[in-house]
Amino acid sequence: MTRIGLFTSGGDAPGMNAAIRAVVRAAVRDGVEVFGIRDGYTGLLRSDLHPMNHRSVSNTLQYGGTMLGTSRCPAFHQPETRARAAEVLREHKIDGLIAIGGDGTFRGARYLEEEQGVRIVGIPGTIDNDLYGTDYTIGFDTAINTALDAIDRIRDTAHSLERIHFIEVMGRQAGFIALEVGLAGGAEEIIVPEMPTDVQAICDNIRRGQEMGKHAFIIIVAEGGETGGAFPLAKRISSLVNIEHRVTVLGHIQRGGKPSARDRVLASRLGVAAVNAFLDGQSGVMVGEIGRQITYTPLEETWTRVKAAPIEDLRLSELLST
Fold first, then answer.
1. From the candidates 128, 130, 141, 263, which is the catalytic residue?
2. Residue 49 has pLDDT above 70, yes or no
């Protein structure tokens, strides 16, 4: 292998730049040329490829976002579009791709490998932490710390007035972010897609809290699931317990900002591991880390196998918030 392409795709995640830096420097060390692809699959289709070297990634690992840009590319669902992408790679004499992203990125990569024979290694970059085959994905740690800081600030003001504060966090159809920040932030309730929502039980818990002298409540709501988000749930619960409420949707602030030390270290390890995987002849896998050991998971398994959220944290949160 003498030349690889590198891109980020889908939603950005803090730590992607650290992963880019690690890939470029590890590859150059081993005599492999790296071409950065702007804006994910969209940039690949328009042949937006540029050579990268040590200096290309200087002073980058501390920044959020992605220096290569990213996009969502619905056209890549079409086989003829993927054939065009493979043609671009052949024109640039690219021997393989390193794709940094989530399940949507890996689905496109898997089809590109299967149909066009393109060698591909994936690096998990998503704040949702919902990819099977790794304990943590790049960006998750930063996202939960960003959300936790916001929750701490909301709790400060919550104690000034008798209100229920509903805080919606990201995570798509997974409750990893909600569970971590809910437990760390001392939330009275955590609503996640993995568990049914018992509105009556929540109301009973709020009433018991009032009897114990509580006058402010924090309820963390994951964006996915049956509730439809924080707004409809807040309206329903507030009407049943007759307490004023406020809703805060943290939104995209969870995807921005400087990556944490943990995300920078994880991204650095996985970036080097991805290059090593290529040099060892591997393809069609995502590099991950389980128990601090590098793992290799077939791309298709990263989204077809379910990664279990730590639901036991719900019981722990209930115990500690009473």
1. 128
2. yes
